[in-house]
């Protein structure tokens, strides 16, 4: 996340005004990158096998489960609430509507923490995610 300073130009106030779906869009990529990097560092698998394994961590049901197990601050719970309640017209293929809402909320939290440069908290949560899935 060293490149973060160059990429993020919005203030926390501006990030707060963004759609939670925008947070989730960013959070999806941040979480995916974290999982891929984790697997490339911890395994000797080829890319296809890493991809198959990564699904265990990034699928909607896993993200929803992780979110329900995380200990969040009140501010983080508000971010999650906003992410969960955002109207999304996408229909999930491999998840229930509830799992999809919670996975969107999870991704929104990750994206919000990244965009507001709350790096220590983001790292703590991402590290916990691996343990919560295993």
Task: Give structural attributes.
mainly alpha, globular, 8 helices, Ribonuclease iii, N-terminal Endonuclease Domain, Chain A, 134 residues
Number of helical segments? Answer: 8
Helix and strand string, N-terminal first? HHHHHHHH
Q: What is the CATH superfamily label?
A: Ribonuclease III domain
- Beginning-to-end CA distance, first to last residue: 24 Å
Examine the coordinates and then state which fold CATH places here, giving the name of the CATH topology: Ribonuclease iii, N-terminal Endonuclease Domain, Chain A
Instruction: Please identify the structural class as seen in this structure.
Output: mainly alpha
Short structural summary:
Helix content is 75%, strand content 0%. The chain is an all-alpha fold and 134 residues long.
Please provide a written account of the structure:
The protein is mostly helical and 134 residues long. The chain has one domain: Ribonuclease III domain (Ribonuclease iii, N-terminal Endonuclease Domain, Chain A), CATH 1.10.1520.10. It is built from 8 helices and no strands. It has helices spanning 4-7, 12-17, 20-42, 47-58, 60-69, 74-85, 97-115, 119-133. Helix 3 (20-42) packs across helix 4, helix 5 crosses helix 7 and helix 6 packs across helix 7 (97-115). The model has no long low-confidence stretch (mean pLDDT 91).
């Amino acid at each position: 996340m060293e490149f973060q300073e160059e990429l993020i130009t919005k203030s926390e106030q501006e990030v707060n005004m963004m759609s939670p779906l925008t947070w989730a869009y960013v959070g999806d990529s941040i979480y995916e990158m974290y999982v891929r990097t984790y697997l490339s560092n911890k395994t000797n698998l080829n890319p296809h096998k890493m991809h198959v394994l990564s699904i265990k961590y990034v699928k909607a049901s896993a993200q929803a489960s992780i979110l329900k197990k995380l200990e969040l601050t009140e501010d983080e719970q508000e971010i999650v609430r906003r992410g969960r309640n955002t109207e999304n017209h996408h229909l999930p293929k491999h998840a229930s509507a509830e799992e999809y809402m919670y996975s969107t909320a999870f991704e929104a939290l990750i994206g919000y923490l990244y965009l507001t440069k709350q790096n220590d908290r983001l790292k703590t949560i991402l590290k916990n995610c691996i343990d919560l899935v295993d």
